[in-house]
Amino acid sequence: MTDKHPMDAHMTETRHRPVVVLTHRVHPLILQMLTDTCEVIANQSDSSLPASELRRRAADADALMAFMPDRITAEFLDACPRLQVVAGALKGHDNIDADACTERGIWLTRVEDLLTEPTAELAVGLLIGLARNIAVGDRAVRARLAGWRPTLYGSTLVGSTIGLVGAGRLGRAVARLLSGFEANLLYCDPSPVSGEEDLQMERVELSELLARTDAVVVCAPLDVNTLHLLDRPRLESMRPGSLLVNVGRGSVVDEVAVAELLRRGHLGGFASDVFEFEDLSRPDRPRDVPEELRAMQDRTLFTPHLGSAVASARLAIEEHAAKAILQALAGEVPDGAVNRPQRTASPVPTPAI
């Protein structure tokens, strides 16, 4: 295993071993899992590789383990003629061109379930933190608390009406966690949820959901239908003083409109773990969180994409992606495949373990 370019000193003697490029830090166990049979080009730093360096490393790669900050385009894939599999250590794969992978005979895999429960847990935590002014209260204590005062009165989840925008695995997981608060749960999704009665959820149109709820939790993925699904008109249709939490994808929500409605006092608060500038599939994405939004500390609560940032979950996610790589290189259908390549290269020979 090396952090250097694969075409250096080891290339001649290890070409019979497939080259696997890892774009971001992984656990040592994953490195060992792959280096048993592959030449691994790792990035164990805290930073993403510059695009030019990632392309250089991947030029002769047989497999790539990709993460959310990576943008895998058709042009990128054309520069990697040996590539057989892109294994995403992620759930939403809008940053990877799935069609381009399919057309070039490259498997694309993702991790479907392992991110769900940790992200749902964070969603509820953000909702509680926003409703109960936890971050604001923390700052008050650190600024030398004078003692109890009749301030920072918030709202409660108990008995409230909460809307879920998106009721896939994540939305349903959030619903299960919220059931303990005896909340009235509404949801909006293109497809009805199987067993919605067991989850005590009511399916309604988005307009009704926004008009009836005290808080809205966005759990929807990003696609052409959900880009700015919550735009200014829809945000203005929410109840005055209601709360908004986003753990789906940043660009499902119009952040500039959120800032405006917070400033006007129409929205009571906004919490998010995901942001528009992260959505690499958008060529017009902003380059940062809006300054006005970041400045509103008393009515916002932000986390740096911590949805799946649980040590055990991250290890399992990386292990899933590593297994998918080994399966694809062995000529098997990899776990978590989201495509069926039109043409698949021959298995890369690997030495016996």
3D structure, described in words:
Helix 12 links the parallel strand 11 (267-272) and strand 12 (300-302). The protein has 353 residues and is α/β, with parallel strands linked by helices. The protein is elongated. It folds into 2 domains: 17-111 and 309-328, 3-Layer(aba) Sandwich (Rossmann fold), CATH 3.40.50.720; 114-300, Rossmann fold (3-Layer(aba) Sandwich). Helix 2 packs parallel to helix 13. The protein has 13 helices and 12 strands. The strands form 2 sheets. The chain has a 7-stranded parallel sheet, sandwiched between helices. A 5-stranded parallel sheet has the order 2-1-3-4-5. It holds the Pfam family 2-Hacid_dh_C. Keywords: Oxidoreductase. InterPro entries: D-isomer_2-hydroxyacid_DH (IPR050223), D-isomer_2_OHA_DH_cat_dom (IPR006139), D-isomer_DH_CS (IPR029753), D-isomer_DH_NAD-bd (IPR006140), NAD(P)-bd_dom_sf (IPR036291).
Record the SSE blueprint.
Layout: H1 11-14, E1 19-22, H2 28-35, E2 39-41, H3 51-58, E3 63-66, H4 74-78, E4 85-88, H5 98-103, E5 107-109, H6 116-131, H7 134-142, E6 161-165, H8 169-178, E7 184-188, E8 201-203, H9 206-212, E9 215-218, H10 232-236, E10 242-246, H11 255-263, E11 267-272, H12 291-295, E12 300-302, H13 311-329
Parallel strand pairs: 1-2, 1-3, 3-4, 4-5, 6-7, 6-9, 7-8, 9-10, 10-11, 11-12
Helix pairs in contact: 2-13, 6-8
Family: Belongs to the D-isomer specific 2-hydroxyacid dehydrogenase family.
Domain D-isomer specific 2-hydroxyacid dehydrogenase catalytic: 20-339
GO cellular component, one term: cytosol
